[in-house]
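Hey team,

Filing this mostly as a record. A colleague (T.K.) asked me to run one chain through the structure pipeline before their review meeting, and I want the input and output archived in the tracker in case anyone asks later how it was produced. No errors, nothing strange. Just documentation.

Input sequence:
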Amino acid sequence: MSTTGQAGPAVATPPPDPGPRPTDGRTAGRPLVLRLLARPEVGVLLGAVAVLVFFLITAPPVRDGGSMANILYQSSTIGIMALPVALLMIGGEFDLSAGVAVVASALTASMISYQLTMNVWGGVVVALIVSLAVGFLNGWMLVRTGLPSFLVTLGTFLILQGANLAVTKWVTGNVATDDISDMDGFGQAEALFASSFGIGGVQVKITILWWLVFAALATWVLLRTKYGNWVFAVGGNQESARAVGVPVTFTKISLFMLVGFGAWFVGMHQLFSFNTVQSGEGVGQELIYIAAAVIGGCLLTGGYGSAIGPVFGAFMFGMVQQGIVYAGWNPDWFKTFLGVMLLGATLINLWVRRTATRR
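Output structure:
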């Protein structure tokens, strides 16, 4: 007689608890403060607040609504150009011709309109085409030759500087263009580029509104579109970006054309604000635009930055420029103050980034 054993129900043994999952510097939970400091615009925001508080204390006229509107206006004329310059810097390049390109655009619109007795909108359109063409040529020469953007745009700077003066004197017989305020279409163009509107009894320039609109649009493009990814990619490592399918040539050229668009817009504002343009202006403004972008957290090496940072950087410039006047100080110290502010903001941004990335 044989006996057979019956097998009992199998009991599943739970696997041992592996313990906490290992993390590295990218996945570790970091304090909120450090995550905020990692943003490129946080350092300049702190600096802008400090500069604002400083002048609110030392220059009482700054507290007036009209004074603040004037400060914002000065900031907007810098900030509108600082935005495309910042995008170009994130893409790993910079443009030394941006300042004279603004004046070249205004001169083109003025002379085309006046000399050909056209409606001013004809000059505005031609100026836009010229500005975009200058940006295209800068970008095309850069990608075709492989030369540094410093050399390419330095050459464009010198060409435009000389052409602005020579062509203006040849066409008008003077160093400035003729007054176009009585031409057809001037009122509509002035309303778009150089008008004011009232808020609480304070007159606010429309460039402030355009500045904020362009900043919001640039931020959306950088953070929410494929093109924004391309900009960061070509600025970080151009060859790696090309290897994964990023259209490097298109991205570089389009960024220079964006600078051309910004130069056109600011040039139109200058033209329709003052009705005439001095051909020798604009020299040195390119450094202001680049400095605003650098203060705003953009790296000269590319691949890092934001569109909001240059907004605060431009505000700091406008605040200092007008704050010195309202405080009754010698305006001859303006550039010195700006240089100190640039170095200080750069060191603060460096400290903020190192603090944010420290484990």
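Quick notes for T.K.: The two ends are 74 Å apart (CA to CA). Residues 248-274 form the longest helix (27 residues).
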